[in-house]
Design goal:
By secondary structure, this protein is α+β, with helices and mostly antiparallel strands. The chain has 2 domains: 113 residues, Phosphorylase Kinase, domain 1, CATH 3.30.200; 203 residues, Orthogonal Bundle (Transferase(Phosphotransferase), domain 1), CATH 1.10.510. Helices cover 55% and strands 12% of the residues. The protein has 15 helices and 12 strands. The strands form 4 sheets. The chain has a 5-stranded antiparallel β-sheet, covered by helices on one side. A hairpin with a 3-residue loop joins strand 4 and strand 5.
Length: 392
């Protein structure tokens, strides 16, 4: 293979090693196997994966020895690594088939090619099997936090973990208190299980706001998004107590045995959907009131019959209907209040006019009396003058 070919397919961190000649031995071995660039599948931070030349349904993995296993485990050999995978985690991890190459810095082994887990396949059964694998790691006191969906696949119908290069002792993992990655992976699986959508798509918010342990704890371990039997696992992870974590996973598996299967037949499933609706409505409200206004306006009166608008997805309980009824009740109260105010204003105006009329009548009456008195006075004065003239 050419130098350009290697730099194209190697993990970026390995390129300086390759350029300095530290990978000459393993490159020569792959060259001898007739490994071509077209055989390459994917490269990660710790390994390069490709089709095994002439291997049919097998893949090969070129792995660096700069991984926790070769630092923190007593038996630091590749065979010791293989023993842990194939024996301690039999039925939980995808077995190592053969070790083809081993030097001081790299090793190559083969694995069976299997179907990778797809988002659409997260159902109660597979969710429980993911929890099974996690519980098994805490039980065996060896764990990898890298439990993303692409690291799972199906071996003879059972879900197994196929990438385990970050394995480390549980004591070291708990001491580091870096439990956020496992929790975020479980949040993704729980969202796919309950709402059939990835977390970011379902709740329209980025996982970046959940990146740290403090952020997750400050948001009450996603209690507004998932039911207690799931968030209790998140809380247990933060306790860094292996026994507590195992117990919480066992309880979650029991509650997940059909109770959150998406059928809508259990009380717990109704609670989950109500939580989903609450979180979704809350997110819509945070983006502005327009969506809420559109939803309210979708309910119209037509020929005395009510036409319902489409309710927000995930809320088929009473929460949305109660919200609409409360809104309608408040609107009716405001109408009644407005009408009552108008009536009072009209009555006040009529009384004011009546008072003005009475005042006017009183004034006119007083004016008439003054005028009559003045005329009477004038007649008296004239009579007195005529009387004096007659006497004179």
């Amino acid at each position: 293979m050419s130098s350009k070919d290697w730099t194209d397919i190697l993990p970026k961190k390995w390129v300086p090693l390759y350029q300095s000649g530290q990978m000459s031995g393993v490159c020569a071995f792959l060259d001898k196997m007739s490994f071509k660039k077209s055989d390459h599948i994917i490269s990660g931070s710790t390994c390069m994966v490709g089709n095994l030349p002439g291997g049919g349904e097998m893949v090969l993995k070129l792995v660096t020895k700069n991984i926790p296993f070769f630092t923190h485990f007593p038996d630091k050999s590749v065979e010791g690594f293989k023993t842990i995978i194939n024996q301690q985690f039999s039925g939980f991890f995808l077995p190592i088939h053969n070790v083809l190459y081993d030097d001081g810095s790299f090793f190559i082994y083969t694995q069976r090619k299997i179907k990778i887990l797809d988002y659409s396949e997260i159902d109660p059964k597979n969710f429980r099997q993911i929890l099974d694998i996690l519980k098994k790691m805490f039980t065996e006191r060896i764990i990898t936090p890298d439990i993303i969906s692409s690291n799972f696949g199906f071996l003879d119908g059972r879900l197994v973990l196929l990438d385990y290069h970050d394995l480390k002792p549980v004591e070291l993992y708990l001491k580091e208190k870096k439990w956020n990655k496992v929790v975020r992976c479980l949040m993704e699986f729980a969202s796919l299980l309950l709402y059939k959508k990835p977390f970011e798509q379902q709740f329209n918010e980025s996982f970046s706001s959940w990146r740290g342990e403090k952020e997750i704890a400050s948001r009450n371990y996603a209690a507004a998004y998932f039911p207690p039997h799931i968030t209790d696992v998140f809380k247990a992870m933060s306790s860094c107590d292996a026994r507590c974590i195992i117990d919480s996973i066992t309880k979650c598996q029991g509650a997940s045995s059909g109770a959150v299967s998406g059928t809508g037949t259990s009380q717990n499933n109704g609670d989950v959907k109500a939580r989903a609706g609450h979180a979704e409505n809350k997110d819509k409200h945070s983006r502005g009131k327009d969506a809420d206004v559109k939803f309210k306006s979708s309910r119209k009166e037509t020929d005395g019959r009510e036409t319902r608008g489409k309710e927000p997805r995930g809320n088929h309980g009473n929460e949305t209907r109660d919200k609409v009824r409360n809104t309608e009740s408040r609107s009716k109260d405001k109408v009644r209040e407005s009408k009552g105010k108008e009536v009072k204003d009209r009555e006040r105006e009529a009384k004011h006019k009546e008072v003005k009329v009475k005042v006017k009548e009183v004034k006119e009456d007083k004016g008439d009396k003054r005028k009559e008195k003045n005329q009477s006075g004038k007649r008296t004065s004239h009579g007195e003058r005529e009387s004096r003239k007659h006497r004179d």
